[in-house]
Design a protein that fits this description.
This protein is of the alpha+beta class. It has helices spanning 23-29, 31-41, 75-87, 112-116, 177-183, 191-196, and strands at 8-11, 17-19, 48-57, 64-70, 94-98, 105-106, 121-126, 132-144, 152-158, 174-176, 187-189, 206-207. One zinc ion is lined by residues 165, 167-168, 170, 189-190, 192-193.
């Protein structure tokens, strides 16, 4: 098996692109993140524990997020965040479990501090039919004030994985749902072939978006963070 090139992502503070494995280091030294932390710490209000979490699609490791979560925020906040940026199609049930997917279920009312002071990994499941599975790992923690008013801040995210057209090998921007559902083929298409591709049992091809749920249960985006 030829090794695939390492997934790259972008720092949300300075926009620098770096590899997935280099991002933790980058975030620890990023001057713009440092400035945001200093500015937040200079404001009024109580300090708390803030957790650096790496969320990653369990079977598509090129989809990943580096998040900073307040210790006082609830797992329900993390669930809402993952739904907004990656998962939400039609309001399916979701759950967190300790360790892997067979681990003990954890209530979404639990606060991050109560969970992440001892747990090193959680699994998040969305939709118990066509399930999306996300691993949540604790990368680190710091004492201080959150850099935004929200429970969770996006620190870095993978760049959209590159895809090639199955008909001509040019860069693809579309996905054929019929290829996926009926032929189990990841049918990515360029602009030109998206127009001429013969399959239409599931409608027009859908635009590729930066989410591991694309095409599952009709998910077609927008794959944008909630705030
Ligand atoms: Zn940066
Ligand atoms: Zn659905
Ligand atoms: Zn093409
Ligand atoms: Zn097709």
């Amino acid at each position: 098996m030829p090794s695939r090139p390492q997934s790259k992502g972008q720092c949300a503070y300075c926009r620098q692109e770096t590899t997935k494995s280099g991002m933790t280091k980058h975030l620890s030294v990023c001057p713009q993140r440092r400035a945001a932390i200093e500015q937040a710490d200079g404001k009024k209000g109580a300090s708390e524990t803030l957790y650096h979490l790496r969320a990653q699609a369990a079977y598509q490791s090129e989809f990943w997020l580096d998040l900073e979560m307040r210790g006082s925020a609830k797992l329900a906040d993390l669930d809402r965040y993952l739904r907004a940026i990656w998962l939400e199609c039609c309001g399916h049930l979701s759950q967190f479990s300790l360790g892997n997917r067979r681990g003990e279920e954890i209530s979404q009312d639990r606060k991050a501090k109560a969970v992440f002071d001892t747990a090193v990994q959680l699994t998040h499941l969305y939709d118990f039919g066509t399930t999306s599975e996300t691993l949540i790992k604790v990368v680190g923690a710091r004492q201080g004030k959150a850099t935004t008013k929200h429970p969770i801040a996006l620190m870095a995210r993978n760049l959209m994985p590159e895809a090639k057209c199955i008909e001509c090998d040019k860069p693809a921007a579309w996905l054929c749902t019929e290829c996926l559902i009926e032929d189990n083929v990841w049918g990515t298409l360029c602009d030109k072939h998206a127009k001429t591709h013969p399959h239409d049992n599931y409608g027009e091809p859908i635009r590729l978006v930066n989410s591991p749920r694309l095409g599952l249960c009709g998910y077609d985006g927008p794959a944008q963070p909630p705030y």
